[in-house]
Amino acid sequence: MGHNVVQQTGPEQRKSGETLVEMVARRLRDAITSGALKPGDRLPTEGGLTQEYEVSRTVIREAIASLRADGLVEARHGVGVFVLTPPAGAYDGFKSADPNKISSLLEMLELRAAIEIEAAGLAAIRRSPAQEEAILEAYDEIERLKQDQKPTVEADRAFHLAIADSTSNPRFREFLQLVGKQIIPRGVLAEGDTERSSQEYLQQIQAEHLRIARAISDQDEAAAREAMRLHLKGSQQRYRNFIKRG
């Protein structure tokens, strides 16, 4: 594609309270849903997008990670990022979930555990080399953002979606997309604000992510299930503590 995806957009054209990542992701989503970008189209290169939007490469990577998490684009190793057919219907999530209630967030985590423990086991059995690489790339992206002290919510979501994809059963991804942003509760708690998670907190999460990724990479079904179980059970306790602290 030699033409601009959208008109040049400077920071002054962002919506109120919108981050650069959100602005770029929104404009690209608009281009996809409007048909300006069609299924099968390749996005401009990372360098081209940084020039087009006048933002850093980090912003572009995070925006594309958000689109990947929503099933709107896919990265093909060594080729580029391509537009997918938008999922049927809007994934608005479970509207009854209340971020101000511990019980509501814990209900969502319990439901995720019922699905994602199975997904981790299936991913360990079924993952292809490309799917394994996608999981590890998502892990690395969280680590990079953590080291840069930047929000990791979208990258965390992409990690779990990469595991869902590795089951080779599209229903797992569809379920997580239906859950929406609430798949990562800290993203709901910090909505509209800078992520306030401590480095110690994120380090613990990353240690759990690494155990999951390694078990899937080793094709160890039992270890993958147990690693995901410990991760989500640990999350339940962390969010109890997080909300109590206010």
Automatic annotation (TrEMBL):
Q: Name one GO molecular function term.
A: DNA binding
The family database entries (PROSITE patterns) matched by this protein are listed as: HTH_GNTR
Enumerate the UniProt keywords alphabetically: DNA-binding, Transcription, Transcription regulation
Q: Which residues form the HTH gntR-type domain?
A: 18-86
Look up keyword Oxidoreductase and say if it applies: no
- InterPro entries in the cross-refs: GntR_C, TF_FadR/GntR_C, Tscrpt_reg_HTH_GntR, WH-like_DNA-bd_sf, WH_DNA-bd_sf
Does the record bear Transcription in its keywords? yes
CDD domains for the chain: WHTH_GntR
PANTHER family, per database record? TRANSCRIPTIONAL REGULATOR, GNTR FAMILY, UXU OPERON TRANSCRIPTIONAL REGULATOR
Name recorded for this polypeptide = GntR family transcriptional regulator
